Amino acid sequence: QMNFTGDQVLRVLAKDEKQLSLLGDLEGLKPQKVDFWRGPARPSLPVDMRVPFSELKDIKAYLESHGLAYSIMIKDIQVLLDEERQAMAKSRR
Amino acid sequence: LERSTNSFSYSSYHTLEEIYSWIDNFVMEHSDIVSKIQIGNSFENQSILVLKFSTGGSRHPAIWIDTGIHSREWITHATGIWTANKIVSDYGKDRVLTDILNAMDIFIELVTNPDGFAFTHSMNRLWRKNKSIRPGIFCIGVDLNRNWKSGFGGNGSNSNPCSETYHGPSPQSEPEVAAIVNFITAHGNFKALISIHSYSQMLMYPYGRLLEPVSNQRELYDLAKDAVEALYKVHGIEYIFGSISTTLYVASGITVDWAYDSGIKYAFSFELRDTGQYGFLLPATQIIPTAQETWMALRTIMEHTLNHPY
Fold first, then answer.
1. Catalytic one of B174, B271, B293, B303
2. A91–B249: do the CB atoms touch at under 8 Å?
3. Average model confidence (pLDDT) across chain B
4. How close does chain B come to A1, measured CA to CA in Å?
5. Four-residue CA torsion sign, A76, A77, A83, A85
6. Could you give the dihedral angle defined by the CA atoms of residues B295, B299, B302 and B308, in that order, rounded to the nearest 10 degrees?
7. How far is residue B20's CA from residue B253's CA, in Å, rounded to a whole number?
8. For residues A92 and A47, is the Cβ–Cβ distance under 8 A?
9. Could you say which of B123, B200, B283 has the minimum Cβ distance to residue A1?
10. Using CB atoms and an 8 Å cut-off, which of residues 12-41 of chain A contact chain B?
């Protein structure tokens, strides 16, 4: 199983179409590095993206440099995955 | 593997093998009303299975429900399994469901993307696409919800094979999509299609590829409103609703657009719980509440379909 330790899901609220487009650019720049859970659509909808731990510093810097406000929705994906696997194992027992 | 549906935990997530084993037991235990149909094979040669709920008769009008076209959306498979069990439990007890099943057949495809789903268990929990590979292309998989022959390759899909929304080389290039197209087309009497995704808590109707409203937009809007109200009454969970392109985003080559363009007037797409706290990693403790509320919305759509023949 792939390990997602330290990977985070960031929620970004774009203020306008220009900021949305900057988020869309991320997919073109790093298609395998940023995984949009909710892709850029319109300013009223938040964008959720999973960012690998190795890319977090760069992506957060990109967001901050373009004035894109973000919050951390999931601090460490692996913690949730471990809980999920434990629940499945417990259910099987 | 769990050997009887009585010992199956509906409040847990399960592997592909467990679900397929459950299907075999379920069909055996309810052979008067449920049968299993293999409609094709996946890219990696897994069986593509559909449950058929029918009280008899030939070529009844039918309702299609699919879950798990995006493999990481585990809550959808779990909701589908619970729903299948709900149908056999409530037939003969719930007047609305009984009326529906006496007049119509219901088809449920629980694991629409079996290769991707197996991969989420074995290797990468967050895998979305199928597992098809092509010579000379480095990246794996096609987004099965961009591979349909309706606005194929348009806005909201991607030509880059490494993208999560890669539409594939041609419409219906993927065996998982082609199997459904062939089955529904050959049947020829589907009246409703409901494709279940997660997450975002939304109920939507066509189009995804166009901002323009469909011809029966008012009817679909009113029906979606009724469905989310029925859903809300169960656990107080709020859904937003509207057309896909105006509610979520523009997306081309999607299931419900194809269904609508193929003459299936009641085409809906769900995005189940939650709104982002857990996203695709919704805890198993939320499976049953999610399924319970989704059932009331499904029932509302199916009842409307029954009462508005066309």
1. B271
2. no
3. 96
4. 4
5. negative
6. -150
7. 28
8. no
9. B123
10. 27, 31-32, 35-41
The 10s digit of each residue's pLDDT in B165-182 is: 999 999 999 999 999 999
Burial label, A63 (beta-carbon count in 10 A; 0-12, 13-18, 19+): buried
User: Which residues of chain A are within 8 Å of residue B199 when distances are taken between CB atoms?
Assistant: 37
State the pLDDT at residue B132: 98
Look at B249 and A80 and tell me if their CB atoms are within 8 Å.
no
The crossing angle, in degrees rounded to 10, of helices B74-90 and B287-307 is 60
Would residue B18 show up in a list of annotated catalytic residues for this protein? no
Helices (H), B155-283: 175-187, 217-235, 244-247, 255-261
Average pLDDT over residues A63-89: 96
Question: Is the CB of A84 less than 8 angstroms away from the CB of B124?
Answer: no
Residues of B in contact with A71 (CB under 8 A): none
In chain A, residues with a C-beta closer than 8 Å to the C-beta of B278 are: 74, 80
Q: Are the Cβ atoms of B276 and A9 closer than 8 angstroms? A: yes
Answer whether B203's CB lies under 8 Å from B297's CB: yes
Burial (CB count <10 Å: 0-12, 13-18, 19+), residue B21 = middle
What's the pLDDT score for residue B246?
93
> B19-73, pLDDT tens digit by residue?
999 999 999 999 999 999 999 999 999 999 999 999 998 889 999 999 999 999 9
Alpha carbons B296 and B231: distance in angstroms, whole number: 5
Tell me if chain B has a CB within 8 Å of the CB of A42: yes
Query: Percent of chain B scored above 70 by pLDDT?
Result: 99
The answer to whether B279 contacts A73, with C-beta atoms less than 8 Å apart, is: yes
R_g of chain A, CA atoms, integer Å = 15
Please list, residue by residue across B219-253, b when 16 or more beta carbons sit within 10 angstroms of its beta carbon and e when fewer do.
ebbebbebbbebbeebeebebbbbbbbebbbbbbb
Where helices occur in chain A by DSSP H, the ranges are 17-29, 53-65, 77-92
Give the E-state strand segments of B24-117 in sequence order.
Answer: 34-41, 47-53, 62-67, 105-109
A31/B162 Cβ within 8 A: yes
Whether A31 shows a pLDDT value over 80: the answer reads no
CA B237 → CA B80, B203, B211, B289, B291, distances in Å? 19, 12, 27, 10, 12
The DSSP output letter for B153 is T
- String of DSSP letters for B244-260: HHHHT----S-HHHHHH
